[in-house]
Design brief:
There is one protein chain. The protein is mainly alpha-helical and 277 residues long. Helix 2 packs across helix 4. The chain has a 3-stranded antiparallel sheet with strand order 1-2-3. The chain has 2 domains: 4-88, DNA polymerase, domain 1; 114-266, Intergrase catalytic core (hpI Integrase, Chain A), CATH 1.10.443.10. The chain has helices spanning 9-23, 26-44, 54-67, 69-88, 114-124, 129-141, 145-150, 177-184, 200-210, 220-231, 236-243, 248-251, 260-273; strands spanning 156-157, 160-163, 171-174. The chain is elongated, with a radius of gyration of 23 Å.
Length: 277
Amino acid sequence: MTNKINHTLNTFLPLYLEYARGKLKPKTVNEYERLIKTNLQPEFGLEKLTSFSTRTVEQWHIRLKAKTPHLANRALAVLSGVLKLAARWGYIQSNPVNGIEYAKEKKREVYLDEAARSRLLGVTYSQDPTDCAFLIAAYYTGARPGELQGAKKAWLKDNVIRYVDAKTGDRNIYLPPEALKAIQSLPAHDSEYIFPKVNTSVLWRKVRKEAKLEGYRLYDLRHTFASAALEGGASLEAISQLLGHNDPKTTRRYTHLTNKAGNETAARTAAVLSGAD
């Protein structure tokens, strides 16, 4: 077995990934493995753990963030996790990533306007029944795509999916009539999951092209739901529960998506203050 002092990033990574698989969800580990393969190993794979320095890592991060700030931050976070574990297990004295500033990222909360929503629904209802039901559920509930993919039949009671072990813990996904009807219309199947074998990447590429939604992501349906809820007058606390946020503060980032709700609320308030009926 390689001595601790001789471990390179490549030789330590199997130990880290074994540890990560016991702590993180498979989807998260898969993403970490992708970032490791495409960004960490080409740059640092043969580097000894004891040779890492804050300066070296920071210079790499600066080069990477000049091209793609989001990718640079994700890759840095994974490297930090690897070296943090190495330090805790005594392979190095300390984590050299500590103190490195992450790149500033532009927040991207995009929502579909009325025309885009109309095109999306038109294309959605022409899809395979399972794909159609999945998209309708995503559109009308604001649930995370991963939550819907993992939702089991046994969790559906009346018009509520009691999602177990969601990103922020167990929560309710409330199904309005449109979503419930789409689910109830699904062909009978033996899978334990409500939406079996939905390939979200393939599905969204197809729907996005047909609906002329270039630049939109599947996750933007969640932002669209939040925007619609705000326009409908829902409170941030209520929207927070619908989206599965533990902290209502997380929901506040959606408030800039549209001015319509704010303008209408201001107008209603002014009418009250003016004594109008």
